[in-house]
Amino acid sequence: MDKATKHLVKDSLFELETEIGLSTAENKDYLLNIVNKVKSSISSLIFFSDDGAVVETRTDLVCPFCNETVYDNRARKNDPNDSYYKTRKPDFSCSNIESPDEAPDSYCKGGKWNSDNSVYWSASWWLTTGNLPKEWNI
Questions:
Q1: Which of 12, 19, 20, 24 has the most other CB atoms within 10 Å of its CB?
Q2: Reduced to 3 states, what is the DSSP secondary structure of residue 94?
Q3: Please, are residues 71 and 92 in contact by the beta-carbon 8 Å criterion?
Q4: How many angstroms from the chain centroid is the CA of residue 58?
Q5: How far, in Å, CA of 111 to CA of 99, rounded?
Q6: Residue 127 burial (CB < 10 Å; 0-12/13-18/19+)?
Q7: 79 in the Ramachandran plot: left (φ > 0), alpha (ψ -120 to 50) or beta?
Q8: Rounded to the nearest 5 degrees, what angle is found at the Cα of 43, between the Cα atoms of 26 and 112?
Q9: How far apart are the C-alpha atoms of 27 and 15, rounded to whole Å?
Q10: Burial of 96 (0-12, 13-18, 19+ CB in 10 A)
Q11: pLDDT value at position 92?
Q12: Residue ranges of the domains in the chain?
């Protein structure tokens, strides 16, 4: 999907949501709920940065510590219906969630234990920290 089409989808959904919101239809809440579901589904694939630029979810990222797939959480963090991701998840996280205790030979060496050593977090990155691997070209 090209950039113009993505903007058309975004604008069309906004227009539809506005029209439903202004209507007096009895099923108004039901229709708004459907629009929100569609927006959530779309936001898992594409999203718009704060400056309005279209950003596609990256699926080709590899963890520099363990060579496993890295999840691009930016789209989910921009999903208006997913407040958990918005406030608690990094922009990128390694998919290798095994702790050193569970997988001594293959755990993510870029991860860390929480303060009481009860939970192991694999490597993760936030756009604001400036420590993204250069090979990701982000």
A1: 20
A2: strand
A3: yes
A4: 10
A5: 9
A6: middle
A7: beta
A8: 130
A9: 18
A10: buried
A11: 95
A12: 3-56, 70-136
Does residue 94 contact residue 61 with C-beta atoms inside 8 Å?
Answer: no
Taking only the tens place, the pLDDT of each residue in 5-24 is 777 887 888 899 899 989 88
- Give residue 1's identity as a one-letter amino acid code: M
> Tokens 């596609």 identify what position?
56
pLDDT, mean of residues 110-138: 90
Tokens for 35, please give them: 């629009």
Of 73, 9, 20, residue with least CA distance to 42? 9
Residue 75 burial (CB count, 10 A)? 21
Q: What is the pLDDT of residues 43-67, one digit of tens each?
A: 666 666 666 666 778 889 999 999 9
- Which helix (H) or strand (E) element contains residue 101? none
Q: Give CA–CA dist 119/100, Å, rounded.
A: 11
pLDDT of residue 83: 73
* Residue 1: per-residue pLDDT: 63
